[in-house]
């Protein structure tokens, strides 16, 4: 029962500490053992903290790589969309200018111009007066 507790609590560290005490043979082996165990704990904690920091840095690095990939994908999609829009505009421009596709653009616009002139005359002024040339009389 006690050995299970010691193995669980100390693991290999107690065996290593006792082997070090036997090798060095200090004048106060208990104090030496205590300092060795404290030092072992500090080193072990520092290593564990370093592992956690390395893991965190790796995760942050992976996230930043994913963000860069996503940004590149978005830029690529925007570029493709822009290329498709430019292609559509290039395809539509010849169609709009061709004689078969746009008969409305080729109609005589004179009636529309006359209607516009009628609408532009100020209110209360007849169309005849608005269309007659203005003469300036000088004396």
TrEMBL record:
CDD domains, per the entry: DD_DYDC-like
Top-level division of the source organism's lineage: Eukaryota
Biased composition (Polar residues): 97-109
Database matches in Gene3D superfamilies: cAMP-dependent protein kinase regulatory subunit, dimerization-anchoring domain (1.20.890.10)
Region of interest (Disordered), residue spans: 93-139
Family: Belongs to the dpy-30 family.
Name recorded for this polypeptide: DPY30 domain-containing protein 2
Organism: Microtus ochrogaster (Prairie vole)
Annotated gene: Dydc2
């Amino acid at each position: 029962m006690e050995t299970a507790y010691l193995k669980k609590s100390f693991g290999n560290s107690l065996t290593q500490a006792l082997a070090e005490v036997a090798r060095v043979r200090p004048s106060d082996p208990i104090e030496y053992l205590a300092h060795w165990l404290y030092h072992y704990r500090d080193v072990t904690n520092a290593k564990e903290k370093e592992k956690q920091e390395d893991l965190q840095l790796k995760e942050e690095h992976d996230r930043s790589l994913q963000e860069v990939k996503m940004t590149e994908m978005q830029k690529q999609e925007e570029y493709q969309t822009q290329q498709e829009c430019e292609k559509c505009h290039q395809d539509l421009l010849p169609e709009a200018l061709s004689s078969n596709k746009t008969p409305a653009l080729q109609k005589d616009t004179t009636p529309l111009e006359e209607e516009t002139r009628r609408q532009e005359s100020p209110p209360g002024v007849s169309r005849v007066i608005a269309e007659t040339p203005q003469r300036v009389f000088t004396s």
